[in-house]
């Protein structure tokens, strides 16, 4: 909510949104480039900046460190210590989601007419961001990015005159991403990786205890990452943004978040239909994509993972409010 409000009150016109998107894409490109390097240089984290010591002494991490390196387990994709790109965010889970958001925004920011050179540069950057998501090994980002990118390409009015091209591009995106993530999908379905069994078990515990939650919840800090790091015996499954809010503040609080989320989606969708707002449509599909993580992870409540999306959502909602105020002002003046 803090980042939503920052976006709402700091974005004043379309130029601010474009500047924000440009900054996010630049940061994402730099992070993807660094991630491609750091995935092969684990010693940078363990020796150069002594990241394990920082996590233990400053962040207070008690559990979740890989014994040999001291790095968080999410720096590795399997028990064989196959690295995942952490990027400038120093967190593979956040890296994947930030790059996925940037990739969809890049598509929405593309002008209608491009020269061959511009198209080549555009595709190179887009492929680099997608490769960065893949190197991060973040399944949630892969799924959210696939849904958002495909949805945007299918519904964007920029391609409405070319339905065959729209279908071809969307199918190509799904095919390429599907082939690139085939091993990850197989491991998730068969639960042969290190995290899928834990995610399913957490989801079952969350559902089993949902109807036993007090009206005002069990209290702030009794669920989610804070409870895990503090070694508190938390309630429920311990993960999932909606469940995290429900167990801490009550089911009504979780319902309030979902209603707020639905209102944002509705306004963003009609903004594109009525005003041809490309960024509003891109943010709409990003929120649809990230909604898949609401019950499986705390992505939507994390600063590093979803701050960019909440900033953009707040900014877009502010611009929509101003767009609606102008016709009203004209009508009042005429009256």
Which short descriptors sum up this protein?
mainly alpha; 15 helices; disordered C terminus
SSE layout and pairing:
Blueprint: H1 2-10, H2 14-38, H3 42-48, H4 51-57, H5 92-109, H6 116-136, H7 139-155, H8 163-180, H9 182-190, H10 196-208, H11 225-229, H12 241-249, H13 251-275, H14 278-290, H15 303-334
Helix pairs in contact: 1-15, 2-5, 2-6, 2-15, 5-6, 5-7, 5-14, 5-15, 7-8, 7-14, 12-13, 13-14, 13-15, 14-15
Task: Note the run of SSEs as H and E.
Answer: HHHHHHHHHHHHHHH
Rg: 21 Å
**So how many helices?**
15
Task: State the low-pLDDT regions, or none.
Answer: 329-335
Mean pLDDT value: 82
Characterize the main sheet. Answer: none
**Number of beta-strand segments:** 0
- What fraction of residues sit in β-strands? under 5%
Give the class from helix and strand content and strand pairing: mainly alpha
Q: What is the rounded distance between the termini?
A: 38 Å
